[in-house]
């Protein structure tokens, strides 16, 4: 649905991760997820418009 509306979408899969793995910062996949989210937001966030 988001793609059909022209929005950026990135699907990440962590097949070996436990449920809610992102709650455990000591897990390598947790850090990887945070970095992936950060990069996606940095690439896809709207730029600030001075008149907004």
Q: Which helices and strands appear, and what pairs or packs with what?
A:
Blueprint: H1 28-44
Protein name: Alpha/beta hydrolase fold-3 domain-containing protein
InterPro entries: AB_hydrolase_fold (IPR029058)
Structure, described:
It comes from Aegilops tauschii (Tausch's goatgrass). This is Alpha/beta hydrolase fold-3 domain-containing protein. The protein is mainly α and 52 residues long. The chain has one domain. 33% of the residues lie in helices and 0% in strands. It is built from one helix and no strands. It is flat. 0% of the residues are buried.
**Envelope shape:** flat
Question: Which percent range describes the beta-strand content?
Answer: under 5%
Largest sheet: none
Radius of gyration: 15 Å
Average pLDDT metric: 92
Organism: Aegilops tauschii (Tausch's goatgrass)
Protein name: Alpha/beta hydrolase fold-3 domain-containing protein
